[in-house]
Amino acid sequence: MYTVAAMSENLTGTRILVVGGGRGIGAELARRTGAEGAEVVVATRSGPGPRIDVTDETTIARAAESLGAFDHVISTASAHHDVPVAELEHDRIRAAFAAKVVGPLLLAKHFAPLMPAGGSFLYFSGIVGWRPKPGTVVKGTANAALAALVTHLAVELAPLRVNAIAPGITDSGAWDALPDERRRALYDGATAASLAGRIGTLDDVTDAALWLLGAGWVTGETVHVDGGGRHR
Ligand SMILES: NC(=O)c1ccc[n+]([C@@H]2O[C@H](COP(=O)([O-])OP(=O)(O)OC[C@H]3O[C@@H](n4cnc5c(N)ncnc54)[C@H](OP(=O)(O)O)[C@@H]3O)[C@@H](O)[C@H]2O)c1
Rounded CA gap, 8 and 102, in Å? Predict the structure, then answer.
């Protein structure tokens, strides 16, 4: 007789830090890991809880000192700079890499030494890293760099695990600020490109994240949760 495993290990007794957990995918992940029994700490740049701005190492160091050990550290931080090459601005390029590449390295620097056996880091890349198109060179390169980063970190920090999720276009709330017409065009384009014939949901992405947190034999990987959208 088979027993069907739960989507993830039961997280009871674990402590999880969600950086960027104030909204979007991070907020839903905080809610779901909490529902699985974890003690969840949400760190934001300006919310009511502990403050972490991944572009400011002092805030990371202070948080590690004051909050102590976590079994899992998650970051969804990102900063966009989607312009043609001729319009690139140095500060905004740096901000994009600070959020997606430098920040994850600094989180590892300060939190890995405190992490118990079985601990993991989970970071967020994105489909654009594998789908080059004009106007997305910064985001694409930062997301692809994050995929390289998790393999390198996984080797150096082993047996701690380090993984990333690369979502496709997902209705996380992140696109709500776009004018309706632009959002519809984005969603229609992503639906047409997706082999699954739709954009992603918060459940699609957080199901994968919950699985990765408990996937003890998976490390150094970027899991593509994009409906196959990077294949065409
Ligand atoms: N949604 C999609 O379609 C999609 C597609 C591909 C990849 N992704 C990736 O998946 C991740 C989550 O996406 P999402 O849709 O949830 O995005 P989101 O709604 O824009 O959320 C991003 C979160 O990161 C936080 N953040 C930004 N910069 C930060 C910094 N310097 N330090 C700490 N926190 C910072 C934001 O906090 P504040 O509230 O302080 O701004 C926010 O909570 C992102 O990395 C994104 O690039 C998303």
Answer: 29
